[in-house]
Every structure is written in structure tokens, then in C-alpha cells.
Amino acid sequence: METLGDRLKYEREKRGWSQVYIAEKLGMKRSSTYANWEYNIRQPDNEMLIKLSEVLEVSTDYLLGNSNKFDKIISNEEYDSLGEITNHVKQLGIEDMGFFDIEKWKNLSPEDVEMIKRHFEMVVELAEKRRK
To answer: Which residues span the domain enclosing 101?
Structure first.
């Protein structure tokens, strides 16, 4: 069975974050406290558990192992898909890989653009099915 520490580590690594980075996002002075949670040496208090769920965008039930559904319910009004994609691109360090390079887009044929459009629509459709 996965522990709280296992889930914290998984979610942190999935985002490419260091223990120091997430500790800073949580407003902690020392990353060793966060590390103790991942190593299951200590447990966060309820207030910090809520902060963890907000920073990691997962439910507290998921973190505590009461649910395998990790998605925190976010209303459409709250969710910023463009911001999420932009942040993800920055976290992966791929902002300079050509996606935002207008000159590279100019070289694409209409068929290439259509293929990108179909792929995007497929991803959106899959996301909609998962939400139902």
C-alpha cells in the first residue's frame, strides 16, 4: 500500500520539482521537514496537508490513501488551461524547442497544421471523456 510519503514523492517528481522547491512553495524555512514527510519519518499537520493538496492540485483523500482518484476538483472558472500548459512548458525547459517559434510554424504545410489540429482535438476529447 502506498504511504503519504510515497504519494508526495510521486506527485513532486511527476512535476519535476525538488524537495527544496516544494518546501519553498509551501512557505517552509527548511526542506528537511518536507523530506521527513516523504521518508515517512513525520506526518504533516492538517493545515499543511491542505496546503500540500493545493500546491500539488490533488485531494487530501488521495494524499492520505483514502482514494486513488488524485484529481482535485477544479471548476472550469478556476482552471487556467493556457497557464497550465505554459507552466508545464517552462518546467520542462522546452520553451525554446520551437513550439513558440513563429518561423518554424511558417514552414508547416496545411496538412501539417491539420494534423496538429486533429491531435489537439483528440487530446481535448479524451480529457472530456475522463471528466464524465
So the answer is: 81-131
